[in-house]
Amino acid sequence: MITETGKVVALKGDRAWVQTIRTSACQSCSARSGCGQRALASVSGGRANQILVANTVDARVGDEVVIGVDEQSVLTASLAVYGLPLVLMVLGSIGAYRWLGATDLVAIAGALAGLAAGFVAVRHWQSGSGDRFEPRLVRVNRIATVNCL
């Protein structure tokens, strides 16, 4: 599981807005030296992000929490979002070129149609997947306070 520490900044019903600064996933990743995400994070200065997650651990505003997402979910979603539109773009280009006329303009139109179909298919697939790809609250890091008498 890829985890990140954040702070609860607001509650909205049974969900919590968590503010994070994306760094820990990059530090623990074995592919950090060749990853574009690390480069983007360094350019943006580790800019804070806010995400709405289900409050399953009874977090309160101001609590430091750990949110996480399953690695397999990230891989599956990445392949779907990037791979399916590209494959359909290539297939659309080849199909249009072969069946609608052997011109470059037809191949380009087929590629654009395939790319658009890929984006629509991914959007439809994502809307039916429920919360499988959403980050979850893992735990609350509450600091114990000592009352001195």
How would you characterize this protein structure?
By secondary structure, the protein is α+β, with helices and mostly antiparallel strands. The protein has helices at residues 24-28, 36-44, 71-99, 104-127; strands at residues 2-12, 15-21, 48-54, 64-69, 136-141. A hairpin with a 2-residue loop joins strand 1 (2-12) and strand 2 (15-21). It is elongated.
Radius of gyration based on Cα positions: 21 Å
Chain oligomer state: single chain
Task: Estimate the helix proportion, in percent.
Answer: 40-55%
User: How is the biggest beta sheet arranged?
Assistant: 5 strands, antiparallel
Total DSSP E strands:
5
The dominant shape is elongated
What is the chain-wise order of helices and strands?
EEHHEEHHE
What is the structural class?
alpha+beta
Number of helices: 4
How would you state the average pLDDT, rounded?
80
For the largest sheet, list the strands in their spatial order. 3-2-1-4-5
Q: What is the end-to-end distance?
A: 42 Å
- Report the portion of residues in β strands: 15-25%
| Low-pLDDT segments | none
Give the topology.
Elements: E1 2-12, E2 15-21, H1 24-28, H2 36-44, E3 48-54, E4 64-69, H3 71-99, H4 104-127, E5 136-141
Antiparallel strand pairs: 1-2, 1-4, 2-3, 4-5
Concise description?
The protein is α+β, with helices and mostly antiparallel strands.
